[in-house]
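User: Hi! I'm working on a homework problem where we have to compare a predicted structure to a textbook description. Could you give me the structure for the chain below?
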Amino acid sequence: MNLMKYSTKITLYNSYFDFNDRLSAKSILTIFQDVASIHAEEIGVGYMDMYNKNFYWVLSRIKFDILKMPKINQTVIVETWPHPKGRVDFDRDMRILSEDGQVLIIATSKWCVIDTANRRLQRADNINYVGDVYPEILYNEFFGKISVQSQDLQSKFKYVVMFSDLDHNKHMNNTNYANLVLSVVENKFATHFEINFINECLLNDEIKIKHTKIDDGEYVVGEINSSHAFVAYLK
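Assistant: Happy to help. Predicted structure tokens:
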């Protein structure tokens, strides 16, 4: 049986960490994005495979939990695997482990496929993997949308999307949103981070960043022309 699971070792260099020597949210998202991309190539749904069919992947939601903070220059194992396909969504789990097998960070993500011609969602039946589904699921609870009331939000700052924010889909890469979120909550140490990507942010878009704190959690929202571009929650 050819199970669809990818595993690799990486070293967490100093540049992956913030000024408090904590692995940054952007670094975690970048690591998971990279291993997901590599594994997608292996199972026949990588960037060029999709591009040749006029499709591309879009990340719609991701969340992670830090169980134990890795250390600078630590070598870790990164694993990822997809779940069984949904109707129009594709869930994928990821985790970071120490070399002796201790789980340090777990994550799950939800992806969809867009047609490049009409920008419409594609049914999962149109996307075929090479391999058998790895059965493990890291989160048992339903991975729903983040909900926050607009009247609770306070304006914090504005950010204009720059050329350096863009990826090869020509919109702001998902990893760059993490810096916007952490710029609002500043020195808060969050063991749980999740973000919903609602509308893509394009070059020169002005994003209005808003924030509220409810109980032990914090919400950060980015708006473009009064519509939500993203909603993040951390605690």
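For your comparison, note the following. The chain has a mean pLDDT of 94. The two ends are 40 Å apart (CA to CA). Good luck with the assignment!
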